[in-house]
Amino acid sequence: MRWFLVGLVALGGCLVPSLGAAAPIRPFSTVLLDPGHGGTDNGGMSRPLSGGRLLEKDLALDTARRVAQLLRARGFHVVMTRTDDRFVDLDERVRVANRLGPGAVAVSIHYNATGDRSIRGAETFFWHADSHGLATRIDRNLEAVVGGSGRGLVRRRLRLTRNPTIPAVLVECAYLTNAREARLVAQPQARERIAQAIADGIVEEARFGDEGIAAVPEIWAPLSRGSEVRKVSKQSRKKRHRKRHVSASIERVDRAKPFLAQAFLAASFVPR
Ligand SMILES: [Zn+2]
């Protein structure tokens, strides 16, 4: 077994489950809301609708503002990585999260896009064990509004899920490339319901912690880096696996670089 683990470290990218139960989430009263993309980085986009194309960066900011308002009304201290249409580097977003320190959680808000227009539904990503409860609660609330994708809650090593030192979750509210969901999220009322679902998940986690949610083991993995994204993008272009949502490419890092130790994940963790 020991040699098997060493082999995984050498070959698979150093993913090894740590021993012991996951630590429960610490109480928090500060929430970092991170609207994805911005400025020159549009993120994903819809096909043209009657009012033009929907840009992910605009919907993410609008939704985050709505979540901020709902959380402030509930007494939370809310910090945002951007409040207007500007580019913010992913590592800077992580630095903002880490400066907040204990007593805070981070929620990154995105809308998804892909070449397959039939794919739809909300997805919520987390990496660390202390983020599982928050991700679960947000995902449950969001799926009740948008509908499930069949993937729902996903454990994936992204810069905004792996690198923050505080619990961190990345939400893909809906698929802009799915006609039904694009029409839905074009409506401000629908974005308000989505914001309410995200806020409800955060409020529930602040109130109940991880109570009633199955613990998952912490998994060690190296920090997620921008250089991996560029490498992955190049490989993906070669394979002609085109995905429209390429500008910040945070969603693709681990999908395109399967670690051997994912076998451990499959054996030890069912994301439901
Ligand atoms: Zn995005």
From TrEMBL:
The keyword Transferase does not apply. Its EC number is 3.5.1.28. GO terms for biological process: peptidoglycan catabolic process. GO terms for cellular component: outer membrane-bounded periplasmic space. Residues 94-203 form the MurNAc-LAA domain. Residues 1-22 form the signal peptide. It catalyses: Hydrolyzes the link between N-acetylmuramoyl residues and L-amino acid residues in certain cell-wall glycopeptides. SUPFAM superfamilies: Zn-dependent exopeptidases. InterPro entries: MurNAc-LAA_cat, N-acetylmuramoyl_amidase_3. The keyword rRNA-binding does not apply. GO terms for molecular function: N-acetylmuramoyl-L-alanine amidase activity. Keywords: Hydrolase, Signal. Pfam families: Amidase_3 (PF01520). It comes from the Bacteria. PANTHER family: N-ACETYLMURAMOYL-L-ALANINE AMIDASE, N-ACETYLMURAMOYL-L-ALANINE AMIDASE AMIC. This is N-acetylmuramoyl-L-alanine amidase. It comes from Methylacidimicrobium tartarophylax.
